[in-house]
Amino acid sequence: LNIAVMISGSGSNLQSIIDAIEKNILKSEIKIVISNMEKAYGLVRAKKHGIDAVYLSKKDYSSLKEYEKELLEVFKNKKIDLIVLAGYLGIVPEEIIKYYKNKIVNIHPSLIPSFCGKGFYGINVHEKVLEYGVKVTGATTHFVDEGVDTGPIIIQEPLKIEEEITAEELQKRVLDIEHKILVETIRLIEDKRLEINGRKVLIRR
Ligand code: GRF
Q1: Cα dist from 29 to 24, 87, 115, whole Å
Q2: According to the model, what pLDDT value does residue 91 have?
Q3: Looking at its record, which EC class is this enzyme (predicted)?
């Protein structure tokens, strides 16, 4: 698969895809990394591995339409088959979601539909999890639809919270799960083992 990865921050999820490709666990190629934050360390990670990495932000365009056109242009030029939102805190324009239906994957650091949606990102997800006192959290990969963290779920992995821990420690443990299930998700798509039936995503054999 020709993959485009969209980021906003450190890019540890991006790094897990880069590592999996370099270890031949994944057969895909990252054709471009796009960040909507100029200083995102993920851009540095990409460049270190000779991967095209660009800063592209909606705010630099006169309209969402212009931004959307630019994104579509980039994805078409690079013959992108799969778009991965890896710690991407931004909007994906409507047209992109339609054009790349069930070809955009997101990773979220909770068991959707809990602790997700607008405002739930980064460390504050884990703060809310601890505040609520749930005994199980985890991470989710899902296809992106027009909502926020609402698309069909692909993989979820739980994490038990059995002792008093800080939000930082919880984030670290969940991040490890994210890295794992994101690579697994891409591999399932490479191997065409996902069957999408409305909201249901079935994993074949
Ligand atoms: C992390 O909070 C992660 O849980 C979420 O996005 C944030 C940054 O991830 N998916 P990354 O290190 O930039 O991949």
Answers
A1: 10, 19, 32
A2: 86
A3: transferase
